[in-house]
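INFO  loader      accepted 1 record
INFO  loader      residues=136
INFO  predictor   begin
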Amino acid sequence: MAKGKTKFTIYQTAAEVLFIFPALFYFIQLYGLIGIGIPWFIVKFTGFFYLVYVTHKNLDNNSYHFQYGKIILMPAITALLVAGLFYLLYQQMPHTTIGVIIIMALTMFAAIGLSILFYDKSLLKISKLKDQLKQE
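INFO  predictor   done
INFO  writer      dumping tokens
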């Protein structure tokens, strides 16, 4: 994609737009406000795997080792753990605005922590984190 091959993302975006608007109307009528998440999940899930396929197909496989576990499995595990944590906390906390804000904050920190744990454990050292932030 960085080499000027934008046709894949254009195809993906066009397919997403053609799917998501009718799907939103359908799922909202069927499930109400909760139905918004269903087509959004379908679009993002299929779009992710489409781009993984396109990226892998267009890479020179001799010079790059494609790590499916690191780019697919670990983010999926992180997302499932964070969603599970959010669900469990939501069951226990009062369903007030402040309760939801607290749950969202806790799950945000869990997502950041799990990402650091799975991808770059050296960021757990404060000095390494400061160096990383300075570079950006």
